[in-house]
Structure formats: structure tokens, C-alpha cells
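My current task is to audit a protein record that another person submitted. My question to you is simply how this chain folds and whether the C-alpha cells agree. This is what I was given:
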Amino acid sequence: MSLAGKNVIVTGAASGIGLATAQRFAREGANVAVWDLNEDGARRVATELQALGVKAIGSRVDVSSRKDADAAVERFHAAIGKVNVLVNNAGITLFQPFMEMTEESWDRVMTINLKSMLVCTQAVLPDMLAAKWGRIINVSSSSAQSGSARMTAYAASKGGVIGFTKALAQELAATGITVNNVPPGFVDTPMLRGEGVAGMGASVDAVAARSPMGRPGRPENMAAAIAFLASDDADYITGHTLSVNGGRYSS
């Protein structure tokens, strides 16, 4: 599985799953753009990746903004080259009883988690179509597969990501571009330790103890699956949902 020389964008890559994914690609020899709202974090990660001998750039990008995405792709072209791989990872969570949910909170989740799929993917597709090769990997959620109480907006947005993946994979199947998604299960990330713990009303370890494997997943577990789907080893896989959840959901 060689990714050496590939040019990759990872959104939401200043921490958590995105960070582990950016690091995995860089270790495989790929050049990486780190997109995140946290500009300092994005630049810090890019500097760390450069130490691995690859090209890397960190940018502050609002993934729901077409202006931001288009400008960041232009910077990518200038610093690295054409885009080969896009990992749509950036997202937010929301724990809230359904009857307490406002239209504003619903719209915010949908804008960041789902509209970003449109904005970021359209920004990079011209490069992939011209090359007749590309990989789009979307990070969804096991909450969309199994359902999750007090997470209606989040689960709905991530269910949209799974549907988006399947539909776009069909549309692009003959172009040399594959589109797949990875729904993480219970993964130990800063977001889970923050908003997740507050929303679940229990510690990460306590919730993990009730899972089939009895432990949370690691961001590196997700990164490994994403890297595989980006490789030539996965060139006959498209429209697929590769669940990485420690047995939380079986399909």
C-alpha cells in the first residue's frame, strides 16, 4: 500500500481523527494540507509533518464556506500541487434532547457536517477529474447506523454523509475516482473527552467498558482504514461504508 507522492487534504486535522490521519498519510510519504478552524493548530501540525520529509501546509478553513475552501485549494496548488485525495473529516457533535433542539442548532450541525461535503468536494473534484484518479473518504458515524439518543441532529447529518457517499460514488464510478466513508464508533478524541463526556453524563472509560471490546477506539484505528481506502489496494471499492467501531454496530 503506497501513498508516496500523493497530495492529500484532511479537514479538521488539528486534533483527533483528522490529526492521526494527516500523520498516517505523511508517514506513508504523502504531502498533506491540514485544514482546521484552529489556525495555530493547523500550522503546528503542518510543521510537524514537514519534519517527516513531506510537503505540508496548514490553513484556517471554514469547511462550510465555499470562499474558504476555494481559497485553500488555491494555496494548496501553489504550495503542493494538484489534489489527489480528500478526507472530509471536520465535524461537530451535539447532545441535546429532541424537544429542546432549536432550528439554529440543527442548522449549525447540518451546515458543518453535511454542507461541507458539497463545498469541499466540489472544490477538489476538478483536479481529480482531470487526472482520472482520485480518492474521497468521508468520516460519518456509527450513530447514523445504530441511532443514538439525544443526538438526532448529529445522527441525521452523518446519515446524510453516508447517503452522499453512496450517491456520489455511483456518479463518479467510471471516472477513476472512488468515494467511500468510514463511520467511527466510540473513539477517544478531544471532542469526545469534552462535549462527549458532558453529553453522555459519564466518563469515556465508563461508557467504553459497556462496549463489546471494553475499550474506546484510537484515532489511529480510523486513520488506518482511511489510508487503505485512499490506496491503490482499494481501487475496486467505492460507495462502501467501512465500519471501524470495535463491534458496536454490525452490518
The chain has one domain: 7-187+218-234. The domain at 7-187+218-234 is CATH 3.40.50.720 (Rossmann fold).
